[in-house]
Structures are given as structure tokens and as C-alpha cells.
Specification:
The chain has about 425 residues and is α/β, with parallel strands linked by helices. It has two domains: about 230 residues, Aspartate Aminotransferase, domain 2 (3-Layer(aba) Sandwich), CATH 3.40.640.10; about 120 residues, Alpha-Beta Complex (Aspartate Aminotransferase, domain 1), CATH 3.90.1150.10. About 40% of the residues lie in helices and about 15% in strands. Strands 2-8-7-6-5-3-4 form a seven-stranded mixed beta sheet, with helices on both faces. It has a three-stranded antiparallel beta sheet with strand order 9-10-12. Helix 7 links the parallel strand 5 and strand 6. It starts with a helix and ends in a 5-residue tail after the last helix. The structure holds 4'-deoxy-4'-aminopyridoxal-5'-phosphate.
């Protein structure tokens, strides 16, 4: 107990030092999270003393295999499904690829149609694009201005050749939550499988296999205070998958390669911690979200992107009139913020915002603000106040025209 407390104290210090040492406060928890010290402690023995290969037939291997089984059991206990239904992957990108390519490559002739949504993560959209190049038929459903999917359109899009629907549980840029159990019912009534990318939902909102009824579920460790490089895919027993790579027969032959035992142990621990505190933590983040929006009321000319009601508690995405995205980020450099999805940040272009705003009328200065375990009320107020002050100053010194805003957006430089 004392050891845990000691490491927690050291970690708090580390956070403050790191976030403030670089003169930045962290508001980008949807891009990634710092590793929880309890996760590091759980993994520790498996890097050194208990380093065995879980497939080896000696005592080292048996102990590693036992740790792996325990981690898989913990995940199944928390998220549902049977222990053997969970396959460890390198993260959500791989889990999404294994789910979508795996199902479609195994689909019989005449069942080569799949449906997804325009606001999915690139790891889903690009996988679908690849499959379209290989001869699959792909339908990409639109969303409305709030980021909602039309269930009527989904029903209409399903046809006799449809094999799979892939719809995320919650969006990584605008935080919008999709009604998965209703989507699952539509799919299952028509004999279609449902895959969901639950990377942003797990640890934030109630999520389980029995709540969603999805046939395939992907998630990633580094969004829940676990190291990068580990994730998992739930594969319901009736789903047939073609593996992405072949070899040693690990993970029921679905994911060849030596399994990284320490990371799997860490993933299970991170999930356990996230679930234990989920309800109170979500309420706390929700209050921070409300407090931020309330504070921003004194500022004119901004809008919230995505539904406020069906939204993750840790996400805000706002577009602000009369300022340039780059100028705004530069002026707010004491905060670690994102202008969209971190995965797209090299070109600052958001396909999600474009889907919400096909006419390009949204102002181009858009910020994604995401809260997490170490975000405090004080820091949220500080960010809101600095944002208001900065926007007013920028508008005053460098008026920014609406026409230029649209051109920038269409030029795919900013969103
Ligand atoms: N899906 C979603 C919704 C995500 O937010 C992310 C991470 N940006 C991914 C997939 C990819 O996850 P990973 O980094 O584990 O490959």
C-alpha cells in the first residue's frame, strides 16, 4: 500500500513537472494518455524476472501463459464475452484491420458488401478503401450536422450482399456517441455482422458486449493510461476471420507472433482501473465540460461541433470565428491542444468536420479539447479564460475574413 501511495505521489509530481515544465498543460487525452503508475507496477515483473514466452513448455513459459490467461480473463470479466474471444493486437488500428479485412476476406462470394460511416477513424476508412480496391462494395453513410447517423439510411443501405457494418462507439474528434444497441438490432435482424471501434468509448461511458451486442469490438491501451502498442479485438464465436498474418498460431491462429505479456498484463490492469472509477470520473469530466462551456458564454462567434447530448464527457470541439487556427494555437502554446484528430494532425485536415459541414461554412479555427484523469477545474477555467482573451486580442489585431476561412478549409490545410 505504501509503495503504491509513494509511486502515485511521485507520479503526480511528474505530471506537474512535465506538463508545466514545458510550460504546457495537457488537454489532449483523446490523442493519448500518460501511463498510470499502477499499470507500470503490474507490468514490472514481466519485463525482467517473468520474461518467459507464454508458448514455451517450461516453468518460465507456464508462468507467462498463466499471466496472459489472467489478463484475458480480466478483460472478458469487465467487457464481456468469453476469455477465448479476446485477441491481443498492437492497438486499435490493427484490431480494426483484423476485424474488417478479416471478415471481408473470409466472406463468401456474393457477400462482399460492407457499410461504414463518413466520420469513422482513418484506420477504418482506409481499410474500407483498400477493400474497395480489391473488389468489395463499400457504402459510406453520411452524418447530420450534429454528427448523428440516420438509422433509416442504415436500414436502406443494407442489402442481401451485406456482410458487415462497422460503426464506431464514440467519435475521436467530436465525441459523438452512436446508439450501438439499436444499430446491432438493425444489423442482426438482417443477418449482418456489426463491428465497433470502441477505442474512445471504453473507460468513458458504460460499454460491454452485452450492452452493445456487437460481434467484433476493437480498443486500444494508450487511451486508458496503458502504454502504446497494445490493444485487443473481441471476436464473437460465430464470426469467421481470415488472419492478417500467419505464423506461430498464437491467438487461436488469428494473430501470429509472440504475445507481449507485459503489455497484455498492463492492458488488463488499465481497464480494471478505468472501469473501477468510470462512473465518478465521467461525472467529474462532465462537470468540467459544462464549466468550460459556461465560461465561454461571454465570447461571441463560436460554435460547438457535434451533439452536446450524445457526447463523451471528456470531449469538446469548437470552431471560432474571425481567427486563424495556426495563430490561435501559437498564441495558446502553454496548452497542449489539438486542431482535430492527432492522427491527421500533419495536415490539420479533418474529414469529420467536413462531414458535418459539407458547404464549408464553419470557421476554420477549430480546437479539440480533451480532458482526462489529471485535468483539474482550475486548469479548465484557466484554459477558458486564456482562450477568450486570446481570441479577442487576435480578432482585434488581425481581423480574419469569412471568405478566406472557406478557402482555407477547401484547400485542406486547416479545418
Ligand atoms: N480508433 C480511434 C477511434 C482512435 O481514436 C484511435 C487513436 N487515435 C485509433 C482507432 C487508433 O488506435 P491505435 O493508436 O491504438 O492504433
Amino acid at each position: 500500500m505504501r509503495k503504491v501511495l509513494k509511486s502515485l505521489c511521485a507520479f503526480s509530481f511528474y505530471c506537474v513537472f512535465c506538463f508545466h515544465g514545458k510550460a504546457q498543460e495537457y488537454f489532449d487525452y483523446q490523442a493519448t494518455t500518460p501511463c498510470d503508475p499502477r499499470v507500470i507496477s503490474a507490468m514490472a515483473p514481466y519485463w525482467t524476472k517473468e520474461f518467459g514466452n507464454p508458448h514455451a513448455h517450461h516453468a518460465f513459459g507456464e508462468r507467462a501463459a498463466a499471466a496472459l490467461l489472467k489478463a484475458r480473463q480480466q478483460i472478458a470479466d469487465i467487457l464481456g464475452g468469453k476469455t477465448r474471444d479476446w485477441i491481443f493486437t498492437s492497438g486499435a488500428t490493427e484490431a480494426n484491420a483484423l476485424a474488417i479485412k478479416g471478415v471481408m476476406l473470409a466472406a463468401p462470394y456474393g457477400k462482399k458488401h460492407l457499410i461504414t460511416c463518413v466520420t469513422e477513424h482513418k484506420s477504418v476508412l482506409d481499410t474500407c478503401r483498400f477493400l474497395a480496391q480489391q473488389g468489395c462494395k463499400v457504402t459510406v453513410l453520411p452524418v447530420d450536422r450534429e454528427g448523428h447517423l440516420s438509422l433509416t439510411l442504415l436500414k436502406k443501405a443494407i442489402r442481401p450482399e451485406t456482410m458487415l457494418v462497422s460503426i464506431m462507439a464514440a467519435n475521436n474528434e467530436i465525441g459523438v456517441i452512436h446508439p450501438l444497441s439499436q444499430i446491432a438490432k438493425i444489423c442482426h435482424d438482417r443477418g449482418v455482422l456489426l463491428h465497433t471501434d470502441a477505442t474512445q468509448a471504453i473507460g468513458q461511458i458504460p460499454f460491454s458486449i452485452s450492452l452493445t451486442h456487437a460481434d467484433l469490438v476493437s480498443f486500444s491501451g494508450h487511451k486508458i493510461y496503458c502504454p502504446k502498442g497494445i490493444g485487443a479485438l473481441y471476436v464473437a464465436p460465430h464470426v469467421v476471420l481470415t488472419p492478417l498474418f500467419h505464423g506461430g498460431g498464437q491467438e487461436r491462429g488469428l494473430r501470429a507472433g509472440t504475445v507481449p505479456v507485459p503489455l497484455c498484463v498492463g492492458l488488463a490492469k488499465a481497464l480494471e482501473i478505468a472501469e473501477e472509477k468510470r462512473s465518478t470520473e465521467s461525472q467529474r469530466l462532465s462537470l468540467l465540460q459544462k464549466a468550460f462551456l459556461q465560461r465561454l458564454r461571454t465570447l461571441k462567434g463560436w460554435c460547438l461541433n457535434g451533439s452536446l447530448k450524445e457526447r463523451l464527457p471528456n470531449n469538446l470541439n469548437i470552431s471560432i470565428e474571425g481567427v486563424d487556427s495556426e495563430d490561435l494555437l501559437a498564441a495558446l502554446s502553454e496548452f497542449a491542444l489539438s486542431t482535430g484528430s492527432a492522427c491527421n494532425s500533419d495536415i490539420h485536415f479533418s474529414h469529420v468536420l467536413e462531414a458535418l459541414d459539407p458547404e464549408g461554412i464553419l470557421p476554420p479555427a477549430t480546437l479539440r479539447i480533451s480532458f482526462g484523469r489529471y485535468t483539474t477545474e482550475v486548469s479548465v477555467h484557466r484554459l477558458a479564460d486564456r482562450l477568450i482573451e486570446t481570441v479577442e486580442k487576435l480578432r482585434h489585431i488581425k481581423p480574419f475574413g469569412g471568405k478566406r476561412a472557406c478557402k482555407t478549409k477547401k484547400g485542406m490545410i486547416a479545418h
